[in-house]
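Minutes, project huddle
Topic: does the predicted pose make sense with zinc ion bound?
PN asked that the exact inputs be recorded in the minutes so nobody has to dig through chat later. Recorded below.
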Amino acid sequence: MKLVRFGERGKERPGIWMGDGRILDVRALAFHIEDYNEHFFTRHGMGQLKILLDDPGAKYVDAAGVRLGSPVARPSKIICVGANYADHAKEFGHDIPTEPILFSKAISAINGPNDPIVLPENAQVVDSEAELAVVVGKAASKVRKEDALDYVAGYTVVNDVTERVVQKANGQWFRGKGFDSFCPVGPFLATPDEVPNLGSLRVWQKLNGETLQDGNTADMMFDIPFLIEYISQGMTLLPGDIIATGTPPGIGSARTSPVLMKSGDVVEVGVDGVGAQRSAVA
Ligand code: ZN
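Predicted holo structure (tokens), as shared on screen:
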């Protein structure tokens, strides 16, 4: 299944992406499913969605022209992994980390997958980072990596948009990565059965049609089961939480001839088998 949230910002409705130009309108049939939020995942909402797929009374909306929001409503946290691909660490002159580097993006930065990315005033060096992201399906505390995938609701794409000058100047990364619209999520939450080959997914970015990043999850240093074990040792992951697993090399500002995002550009990021985003830069 591919879960989407559709409609105006702040008024999105939960839906199922049918892949045939239609979205199943979940709330039209299941009034109690308000949204894809912590409550939904905790109450085993996924099982209820499967039943809706077979309901002859299901209502659909035409997907064409419908705005998509983040497929998860306001999670408790977005945890990001820095420098999880060795060649990306090297392009910024970082040492190869021996443990995951964790940081957070502001929840208010969440953007729909095709919404404009709005550059802040006085923005200087802004990059996109294509990333595979994990959505947590049930509360995870002190989970072992052998069991970690049982705690996953599904996968999505995050663009970890970053203002580098602010990121570097501030000593920590929160502000440079936390501006409004700097966290496009989606288009879907793809359930694990849709993503059988987690360890070999192409992760890519194009700016104005030109490929900047073309990596593969096979090159992650810390894989998803390890990350869930590592994070959950001391920090409970709540249903709906998002873990962005890091970005491969090819970042615009790290190039010999830097390519920077500017107003009027179009950035696309995607993970093959999980989905793709297309955002205008404003
Ligand atoms: Zn990142």
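Observations noted during the meeting:
- The radius of gyration is 18 Å.
- The pocket of zinc ion is lined by residues 80, 129, 131, 160, 244, 246-247 (CB under 6 Å).
No decisions taken; revisit at the next huddle.
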